[in-house]
Amino acid sequence: MARMIHFLHTADWQIGRQYGQFETDDAAMLAEARFDVVARIAALAAERQVDAVLVAGDVFDTQGVSDRTIRRLFAAMAAYAGPWVMIAGNHDAALADSVWSRAMQLDCIPSNVHVPLGTSVVDLAGIDLAVLAAPLTQRHTYEDVTQAFDALDTERGRIRVGLAHGSVAGRLPDNIDATNPIAPDRAARARLDYLALGDWHGCLSIDERTWYAGTPEQDRFRGNEPGYVLDVRIAAPGAAPVVERVATGKYRWSAWSETLSLPTDAQALAERMAGLRAEDVLRLDVQGHVNMETWEALQQAVDRAAAQVRALLPDLSGLKLEPDEADLAELRASGYVGEVAARLQALQADAGQAAVAGEALRLLLRFQRESAVPGGAK
Hints:
Elements: E1 5-10, H1 24-48, E2 52-55, H2 67-76, E3 84-86, H3 99-106, E4 113-114, E5 120-124, E6 129-134, E7 159-165, E8 167-168, E9 181-182, H4 186-189, E10 194-198, E11 204-207, E12 210-212, E13 228-234, E14 242-247, E15 252-260, H5 263-274, E16 280-290, H6 292-308, E17 311-321, H7 325-330, H8 336-347, H9 354-371
Helix pairs in contact: 5-6, 8-9
């Protein structure tokens, strides 16, 4: 009689990913978080005493990661001594000369880690689990590599779990690359009890037997529910899997797009930023019109937020400076300085000159304000 199978499904670790859009220190911490989450997954697997951990591709972000990175990855998995089955995805395809061939040459893949380099069955006889694995052997293919599952036989009484990396046809957003297609009914066609997928970075159920685990540590500004692994229990062949989402991510990536027209809008944004935490990664795009006082208050709020979050990417280039009566009074609007200010304000409407004109207007207002203080700014 078959026993219940209990395993973790994870994918898209993207080890070695670089974050060039961030400051050097922030980029290093975000890259390190990818090793840390693997260690958390291993600890979770040991704590929950699962039968296996299945990793559905893109373990590495590129073929060119360093030897040290390869060694560090397998070292991060050490807390779980049970079987791991991991396959190549499009980022780390199992080419003749690949990150996987280097890992084997380095002899750093532990004996409990199974890395099939072609479509095959990894038969874990001790736990009555047959993993039908379809690693990608090239970055892009227009054939469904899981089609071979239909004809793959497994030992009688085994729970059949597919492990693949690609895009389920017609079930992901239209802008997703159509390469590496997977039939939406593959689990039924191949008599699979569960199909563990990678490639889509969000946690997503295609049907009760077909799931994307998503990346366990968020790595981009897309709200598609990343930051999980899946805890899967299957009572017997043919039984419906019981799937639990388990949060594993450390950092929370958010993208805010704000339009300001009143000082109270800027105040509300400043209060919202004040609530950010050390684990936040924020991309902030601000547009609209503000006076000098509001602009300076907003800049201070951005600076404070940058000091309290993991990383902040602010873009205030869409924010136009509109001097109010107090600002114009400081510019002595009837004189030459006022004429220059009016010209700079008008230039903000020119997309090619808006950023420079806005900065010049702010500098002019600041200089005028400081020069009005006896002895200059202190």
